[in-house]
Amino acid sequence: MHEWSLADAVVRSLLRFMASEGLDSIEEVEITWGEILELDTDIFERAFHELSRGTPLEGAKLVLREEKAHFRCNSCGAEWDFKTADEMLSREFEIMEEPTGVRENPLHFLPDLARTLLRCPRCGSRDFDLIDGKDLRVSRVVA
Ligand SMILES: [Zn+2]
Question: How far is the CA of 143 from the centre of ligand 1 (A)?
Answer without folding.
Answer: 44
